[in-house]
Amino acid sequence: MAEQKKKTLAQTMGITRTVVRDPSESDIQLREDRIGRYFKKYLSKFVFDEFSPKFIEESKAGDLLKGVPIPLRKKDLKAFDGGEGLPMLVIAENMAWVMGCDPHFKHTKDYVAILSRIYNYKLYEGMMKEGRDAAERGAMDDACIHFRAALCMKPDYLHAMYSYARACRAMYQDSRNEEYVGRFKAEALDFFELTTETHPRFAQAYYYLGYAYLNMGLYIKADLTWAEFLRFSKNGPDKKEIRKRRRQLQGPIQIESGYNDVLAGRYEEGREKLEPFLNSQFNTWWPLHYYLGVAYEMTGKKSQAIASFKKVLTMNASHIETMQELVDIYTESGDRENRRKYEKKIELVQKTIQEDQKAFKEEIAKEDKELQEQEPKDQKPEFIEEIKELPMARDSGKKKIKRLDRKDR
């Protein structure tokens, strides 16, 4: 009888990583960078030099340093080229900033290899601490950049994944710019999901992911996510809060199930699930009446469908889909007057929406450009004292200094 493979503790408990994404979706160096546009402005603070052959020969990083441009802030140049030396950790911090600003920078892999050989895990733990300290003092760009740098070093680093997701969440909650909010919200959601997929026993990621789904109206997913939170969490107050939230979700879950039935063409089932909520607190939810209207229309109850759609328009007067449903009903019944009435309303709403969207997009584009180009504050390396007794970068033997051209980013 073949010897059975020993199970891990997680497997014994029935906890397995069932979702493994392709690196193109999970590795920050490879995945789409939704929010990098807001950090690349900091790269203007750096110029690039190279180490001398002598320093490369004596360095622990050795051949890894050959031909790799070293990022320096303008204030670092004198020390780097003047002979007194520049702490290697200052250079490491500069590399972290460049990686964090742009994980797709063509020398990110070189920086990761160099820093890994010299400092191993201690450096990305330092990046993590620096990011948390920055978040505590409200410097959220700084925090995000350090969390992103730590993820360049170790893409599945639990604390960096979770902290990065929370930082993105805090940033979009503090903004009114639609473009900015959309990008940071998508990034936060993706990294909360990635954290639960990669580290399925980490409870707090489920806590925030559940709220993200709730705010998107995905009540079933929120409930399932919070069930996992309760499974793994040991935080009494948070568990009490989430149990209360799940009780509050029972109605919305049934309504969402009814919506899904209607969308899937199961009109009778959807109607049966949704009708009981007409005499509940959810009677003020216009989608409830919209999906009931669709269910009524598709099951031949035209008068009830019309009443439901008109109810929607008392709550959401510009809902074009509802007006189009009324146009279709009146077209089928030959009621030209009412058909034309709602066709005109659609035309008016569409025109207003187009005008508003044009003005809004122009305003958002202007704000988004300012967010990308506003003069960045000069940030000082903070985690130098976290690692002791490190080599000094002396005798650099200046070869060339250049700004980071667009083609090099």
TrEMBL record:
Keywords: TPR repeat. Transmembrane segments: none annotated. Residues 399-409 have a biased composition (Basic residues). The keyword NAD does not apply. Signal peptide: none annotated. Residues 364-398 have a biased composition (Basic and acidic residues). InterPro entries: TPR-like_helical_dom_sf, TPR_rpt. TPR repeats lie at residues 286-319. Residues 364-409 are annotated as: Disordered. PROSITE patterns: TPR. PANTHER family: TETRATRICOPEPTIDE REPEAT PROTEIN 13. This is Tetratricopeptide repeat protein.
